[in-house]
Amino acid sequence: MAPSDSHTSTKALHADDYLNLVTDVAPPIHLSTTFRFPKEPENLLPSQDPVDEFDGKNYVYSREFAPNATRFEAVLSSLLKGHAVSYSTGLAALHASLVLLNPRRVSVGEGYHGSHEVISVVSRLSGLEKLPLDCSAESLGAGDVIVLETPVNPLGTAFSIKEYAEKAHSRGAYLVVDSTFAPPSLQDPFAWGADIVMHSGSKYFGGHSDLLCGVLAVQRKDWQKKLFEDRLALGNVMGNMESWLGLRSLRTLDIRVQRASESSGKLVAWLHEALKSSTEDTSTDKGLVRTVLKGIHHASLQNEPWLREQMPNGFGPVFSIVLQSEEYAKVLPSKLALFQHATSLGGVESLIEWRALSDGRVDRKLLRLSVGLENWEDLKNDLLRGFKALVEGMQG
Prior knowledge:
37% of the residues lie in helices and 14% in strands. With 396 residues, it is an alpha/beta fold.
């Protein structure tokens, strides 16, 4: 097993070594939902507490624990620096955090629309009151929750985790950080005061646009136990195949995220530099960018002093551009060859989305870009060709 001070890439490959059941280098796919009890009658002991009794190998039924999910959680626990629990989707993970903490009030930003849908369901059942993210600290009480998404969807801009942790803790409230857009090793929310760290694992943990999952990480062992118990009761577990795909994908998480984040940073810097120029000549790259784009959003463009401490290794592979018109935003994705027009993010392929198709609240001139593993200069040229075709088409 990897030493605790190992780097992220090493932990991703060895944090689950202690769970090896066979000699295979690549963990096998365990598809069974049920497992044989011991043959010896003396070892047949009625269960008192399935969570406490689980030792990482004594599987009974996959709604409780399953081999691939257990390994997936072992690696994530090492990477996230907390006790990880996996779920069927990211929204199931958010729901689990609210069930665990059972707040009377939740403070949340605009961010991902799905989070508001979960809060709406919980509110219908419990009377949970939703407050804006910028509400006063006095609006919160003991046991309440701030849900902070950073970087935020769809912009890719960031908030100070430390600031919101201090705000929550000053009132006896808790901070849940959705760090989906900044997986290890871009950001460690626990280092800045988060109580619970959440991820839509469908994105970077999966990394190949082929699985759904959610993850919570906590540093309190009693919270992890309660999350396992609640998951057992509600049944929102990852499937066996998804767990295996997730484990496979974590092996390359560090190199994928670093490469995509680096490419995203280069694209953002190029677009930003073009927007700062004064040329209107569409025969030049800068002129094309200025003709099509009105603005760009990404954490790398923020100048807050805390940001480079919170995100020392890059600012994430997702950013947004605002175009000069709604028509430009609607048409541009069809002019691109390498950026595929689809929702979601975090896969090896680059995606672009006219975000209004998924979230009616956002500016209809906004496009969200998720940078994958293609060469960044190829992506740059793809955008330039798209900008040129867009301008020529509108002029024609």
